[in-house]
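testing teh design pipeline on a random one, pls ignore if ur not involved
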C-alpha cells in the first residue's frame, strides 16, 4: 500500500482489469499520484479509469455523479475563459500543473461529458532510470550517447517508434541529456512533454488544434522553426505533412530527433512514405537510427523495453536495415549483434579518427553510466551535469571511475 495525501492506495487483482482502490477516493489523489499517466472519466456515475505505469488500465473506486461532473467542467471552462456548449462541444487545455485535459460534451459524446487528463510528469526519467528499469542496457545507452552527441559535429538523425504508451517520449527526454549544452534546440510538441532541465538555449513550441480550423499546423510550426537557427530539431510526434518538411531539413544538414507511431522499422518506413507524410523514397536514408520501443506484458505487470535499434542504410533508391541491438524475450534484454555499425564507421571518417577511437569512447561512456547506476544517481539534472562535465573535460570524469 502507498500513502498519497490523506488516502491509502492499493492495487487489487481483479478481472478484466485491476482495481485501484483509495481509502478516500478523490480526483486530487489521482492527480497527485506519480504512478498514474492518464485519468479517464467516461461518464457520470461510472468508475473513473486510470492508466498506471506498472499495471496498465485500472478501474478505480471513484465515481462522480452528473451534478459534480458538470460543476467541475463548468468551473474549469469559466476559469480558462473558454466556451463549452453545443456549438463548442469540446475543450483542449491544461491544468495548473501542466497536465493536458480534454473535455467533450453532447452532442459529440451523447452519453454525457467525458474528461481525459494526460498527467504532466514532474519527475522525468533520466537515462539511468531507464537503465535501472530495464528499458535499455548500459551498452545500448552508451551507443545512443555517441549517436546523439555525434562527436559534436555529426549527430545522428533518430526516430523513436512504438505503440501508444510504450515510453517513446520518456526515451526521447532521456536522450536530451546527451545533446551538448551549447546547441540551440527547437522543440515542437503536442502536447508539451519533453523535459529539458536547466538548459538555456532552448525554444519550446506547442501545437494547439482549433475546431474552427484557424490553428497553425505542425508543419507551419516546423517551417517557422527552420528560420530560428536550430542546431537540433525535436518533434514530439511526427504524424502529418511535417514529416516531408523534416526530411528536407535533414537533407540540408539540420539534425533531428522525434517520435512516431509504428511497430517496426519497416512499418515506420511504410508510414513515412504513405499519406499524409509522403516522404520521397530517395530521402528515407536520411534517418540514421530507428529505435523501436514496446510494452512487454509480464504476467500482471507492464515492462517498457527497447526491442530494436536499427541503422537505416541507402540501398539504391530505397533503404535497407542493419540491426545493431535485438531483444531476447528469455533474457529480457537486448543483445548487440555481431554486425559492425556502418554509421559509426561513417562518423569515424567524418571525424578523422579510427573506428577503434570511437569504440573506445563508447566503452568510456558505458563505464560512466555504470558508475552513475552503481551510485544511485538518477536525478535528471544531476545526470545531465555529469555528461556536461565529461564534454568539458573527459579526463577528470574518467579519472574518477
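output:
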Amino acid at each position: 500500500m502507498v500513502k498519497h495525501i490523506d488516502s491509502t492506495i492499493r492495487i487489487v487483482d481483479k478481472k478484466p482489469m485491476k482495481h485501484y482502490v483509495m481509502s478516500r477516493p478523490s480526483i486530487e489523489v489521482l492527480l497527485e499520484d506519480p504512478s498514474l499517466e492518464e485519468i479517464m472519466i467516461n461518464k457520470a456515475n461510472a468508475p473513473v479509469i486510470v492508466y498506471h505505469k506498472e499495471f496498465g488500465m485500472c478501474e478505480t473506486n471513484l465515481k462522480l455523479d452528473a451534478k459534480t461532473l458538470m460543476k467541475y467542467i463548468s468551473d474549469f471552462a469559466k476559469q480558462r475563459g473558454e466556451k463549452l456548449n453545443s456549438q463548442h462541444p469540446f475543450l483542449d487545455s491544461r491544468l495548473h500543473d501542466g497536465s493536458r485535459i480534454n473535455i467533450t460534451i453532447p452532442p459529440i459524446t451523447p452519453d454525457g461529458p467525458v474528461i481525459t487528463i494526460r498527467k504532466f510528469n514532474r519527475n522525468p526519467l533520466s537515462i539511468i532510470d531507464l537503465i535501472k528499469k530495464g528499458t535499455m542496457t548500459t551498452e545500448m545507452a552508451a551507443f545512443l550517447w555517441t549517436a546523439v552527441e555525434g562527436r559534436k559535429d555529426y549527430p545522428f538523425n533518430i526516430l523513436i517508434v512504438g505503440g501508444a504508451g510504450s515510453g517513446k517520449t520518456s526515451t526521447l527526454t532521456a536522450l536530451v541529456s546527451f545533446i551538448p549544452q551549447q546547441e540551440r534546440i527547437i522543440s515542437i510538441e503536442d502536447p508539451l512533454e519533453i523535459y529539458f532541465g536547466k538548459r538555456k538555449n532552448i525554444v519550446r513550441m506547442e501545437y494547439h488544434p482549433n475546431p474552427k480550423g484557424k490553428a497553425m499546423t505542425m508543419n507551419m510550426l516546423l517551417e517557422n522553426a527552420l528560420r530560428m537557427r536550430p542546431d537540433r530539431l525535436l518533434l514530439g510526434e511526427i504524424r502529418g505533412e511535417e514529416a516531408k518538411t523534416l526530411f528536407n531539413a535533414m537533407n540540408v544538414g539540420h539534425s533531428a530527433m522525434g517520435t512516431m507511431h509504428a511497430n517496426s522499422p519497416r512499418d515506420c518506413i511504410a508510414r513515412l512514405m504513405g499519406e499524409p507524410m509522403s516522404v520521397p523514397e530517395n530521402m528515407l536514408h536520411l534517418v540514421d537510427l530507428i529505435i523501436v520501443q514496446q510494452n512487454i506484458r509480464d504476467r500482471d505487470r507492464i515492462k517498457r523495453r527497447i526491442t530494436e535499434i536499427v541503422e537505416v542504410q541507402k540501398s539504391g533508391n530505397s533503404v535497407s536495415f542493419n540491426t545493431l541491438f535485438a531483444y531476447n524475450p528469455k533474457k529480457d534484454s537486448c543483445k548487440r549483434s555481431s554486425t559492425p555499425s556502418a554509421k559509426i564507421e561513417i562518423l569515424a571518417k567524418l571525424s578523422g579518427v579510427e573506428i577503434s577511437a570511437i569504440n573506445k569512447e563508447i566503452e568510456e561512456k558505458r563505464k560512466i553510466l555504470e558508475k552513475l547506476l552503481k551510485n544511485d544517481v538518477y536525478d535528471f539534472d544531476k545526470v545531465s551535469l555529469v555528461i556536461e562535465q565529461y564534454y568539458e573535460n573527459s579526463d577528470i570524469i574518467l579519472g574518477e571511475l
